[in-house]
Description:
Low-confidence stretches: none
Structural class: alpha+beta
Number of strands: 22
Strand order of the largest sheet: 16-17-15-14-20-21-22
Distance between the termini: 44 Å
Number of helices: 16
Mean pLDDT: 94
Strand content: 15-25%
Helix content: 25-40%
Amino acid sequence: MIFDHDANVVDVAQREHEQILPQAGWVEHDAAEIWTNIRSVVGEALASSDLTPGDIVALGITNQRETTVVWNRHTGKPVYHAIVWQDTRTAEICDELAAGHELGVERYRARTGLPLSTYFSGPKVRWILDHVDGARAAAEAGDLCFGTMDSWLMWNLSGGTGKHGQEPGLHLTDVTNASRTLLMNLETLEWDPEICADLGIPMSMLPQIRSSSEVYCNVRARGVLAGVPVAGILGDQQAAMFGQACVSPGDAKNTYGTGNFLLVNTGTKPVHSDKGLLTTVCYKVGDEPAVYALEGSVAVSGSLIQWLRDNLGLISSAAEAETLAATVEDNGGAYLVPAFSGLFAPRWRPDARGVLVGLTRFVNKGHIARAALEATAYQTREVIEAAMESGLPITALKVDGGMVVNQLLMQFQSDILGIPVVRPVVNETTALGAAYAAGLAVGYWSSLDDIAAHWQAGEQWEPKMPEDQREELYRQWNRAVERTYDWVED
Length: 490
């Protein structure tokens, strides 16, 4: 996406990449395909906007945070597919680490802000080293690089293997992505040697940790954007916070993407939750102190609509979900709990699996489509309640991401929360946040206040549902969620 100084979208290009599902619970991406697609969409956006690389003042990167890539620093080739954040194959590794300590899954939370979970990158690296032939020996010899997707893109953008007269690629990440690996100390913003040792990860694999907004390098000479400064990196949810101008303590946003992610700005000190929320770095601008956030992560929301489309054939496009759901007045008593990869915040139940309950002969595909949309709203309420129990009052919710164009979902979200839901004029706040981080580093925008001044409210939904109806629906949702527990026995 290309943005101008007023945060308007100049042009956009996008394409899907393959979702690789080798077996139940495994989710992979082809990192080489993503790099190829990146080059294509950059070229397409430039061409359709009639801009040249010289017109671009800076490049920012935003990415799925925990998705893990390991590649050979000499050949530039990944040793295995990228293991996606939703993947659950590392459950045994997490169980092993939890069993070996009196704090169990909380073993590293005080240092990292995170529980032991298949969600995070560290166990994924361990799995690759344990299961890919020759990977551990190569890692111990210093031949392998680990990174989240930002690191992979940065390495390639800056030169890669250094062939064709290029400088070798830079191996780095920013604090927001590093905070999602289970390997970084939140206070020092440095890799934790003890945790790396526990997981058997050589520290030579790890990228350098930098701020979210600074000039890292210029794009390599052979690149589509040759010479353009790469000046911003933010994990996708933190980028959405930046794009929503949530730069003051107490500001909150919820992104509706593949999963759902609620973040609340907590200022320059980490705040720990006893309600299952994660403590994470929100952003760090240059030499300024890091700003932290509490986060509630929902594993499956937009990907549930993809499941209705691709696995069940119930709809032929994501947009049809709203049309189909609107054919009925309510869910007909059906509740769909998409615990495909277990349940994330605030329940953290890796043993859970998806259920569709409350079925009668009356229920039709319209009810199922509606139940799928409502599941996203119910899960959002769970994490918002957890945040509020940590002393963070939330009186309105800023929303963004692909699903917020769904009017039925946004109205139901406001209804089930009992507070206003506000969508900004620029919905793609994740990309905008990456642009802000990059532009701030090169002086295109002067300050965080300058960025905040560009935020504009678009559409707003107010709650219309009676409180007794809201609470009864939510009570039934909780009954449905309890049916998902203890399904995975091994």
